[in-house]
Write a structure and sequence with these properties.
Length: 367
């Protein structure tokens, strides 16, 4: 397993040792020098630029909503990959009192649980303070009771898999809670039965859609990565998640455009560049290679093409991640100037995994 990964532990250990910092301080204080310099690693340089650009120019950065939460998961991936912090995620969590949003009449809306993953990253890698996870634990415990009572249809949209499933997996493993992991499996199977088509091995967006959305399938692939990272090798639920991941990966590798992007609607042979779906798929495929789950000989050329497309066309010289479709409930077109927090976060997650595949991005040996 690569959770949190050799790079993540090495970056944090180097920061703590070199700077005399307690782990809690790493998220809000940059190390004296980046763990990977721009000269060594263009991937790291671009990740830092993209994060800094969004912090400086992104709108409505305060709420703990799914847009900002996805960005902050990616933002902490910058620190874990490069050792560089923009001092943003910890204050954001503190300002929101580590509380998940609520929606009237929808107590277990998956989008309202997306912040849980960012809070888990803060807790796990930087600031192990129990209050950070208190509201998340409470929300999941109540939802587990509801699932055990037979209510398994809460994840009725493919994006819900990434918004909620990783928190179930991580809290379940962290707390050795079989009820939490069993509830996750029941929720996943309900969504799988409704939305996953074994042929061609792709997810529909919701029960009313017929096509296959690149971003939606990217969310599903990313969710499976995050669950597979934490589940023990002998967990009885793991084989089904791994089977779906591999099936998706094979199909997606065939559907990639010659220019490295994936179309917003995967099976349509036309459409312009779209970076959010491409970033999420790149993240998933690159993790599969890094973890040994996918054959590098088959999948790495596609990851290389995708990263080249993202880094040379989607991201501007000053770090703006463009070509992010504004439509967030199905396929849509995107312009070079279209950007969003979830698109930036997805790009940063892709960069984290691509860095592990890139010569020159390896951390220097410890002294």
């Amino acid at each position: 397993m690569r959770f949190p990964g050799i790079r993540g532990f090495a970056v944090l250990a180097a920061a703590v040792t070199a700077g005399g910092l307690a782990p809690a301080a790493v998220a809000s204080a940059a190390p004296a020098a980046p763990a990977v310099s721009a000269a060594q690693c263009s991937v790291a340089d671009l990740m830092v630029k993209a994060g800094d650009y969004w912090v400086a120019h992104g709108p409505n950065l305060a709420p703990a909503d799914s847009q900002n939460s996805t960005f902050h998961v990616g933002n902490l991936a910058i620190v874990r990959t490069t050792g560089v912090s923009n001092h943003t995620t910890l204050p954001w969590g503190q300002a929101n009192n580590y509380l998940l949003p609520t929606t009237a009449g929808q107590p277990f809306r998956a989008e309202d649980e997306a912040a849980g993953e960012a809070f888990l990253d803060l807790y796990t890698y930087f600031h192990p303070d129990p209050p950070i996870l208190a509201d998340l634990r409470s929300r999941l415990a109540t939802e587990v009771d509801s699932v055990e009572a037979g209510h398994t249809g809460y994840w009725d949209h493919v994006t819900a898999l990434n918004m909620a499933m990783p928190s179930f997996a991580r809290i379940g493993v962290m707390d050795s809670s079989e009820p939490t992991l069993d509830a996750m499996q029941k929720l996943f199977h309900s969504t799988e039965k409704s939305l996953f088509d074994e042929f061609p091995g792709l997810w529909r967006t919701d029960a009313h859609s017929a096509g296959y959305w690149a971003q939606g399938n990217g969310w599903a692939l990313a969710a499976l990565v995050k669950v597979l990272q934490v589940l023990p090798a002998n967990d009885p639920r793991r084989p089904e998640y791994l089977r779906v991941f591999k099936k998706m990966a094979t199909t997606l590798s065939v559907l990639q455009r010659p220019d490295g992007f994936w179309n917003a609607n995967l099976l349509l042979p036309f459409g312009g560049p779209e970076s959010s779906g491409t970033s999420l798929i790149t993240y998933g495929l690159a993790w599969g290679i890094n973890s040994g789950v996918l054959d590098s000989r088959w999948f790495k050329p596609g990851v290389d093409r995708a990263w080249k497309a993202l880094s040379t066309k989607a991201v501007t010289a000053d770090g703006m991640v463009g070509y992010v479709q504004p439509k967030t409930d199905g396929p849509g077109s995107a312009k070079a100037t279209d950007t969003s927090g979830y698109g930036v976060g997805a790009f940063l997650l892709a960069g984290q995994q691509v860095a592990d595949l890139t010569p020159g991005c390896a951390l220097p040996p410890a002294n």
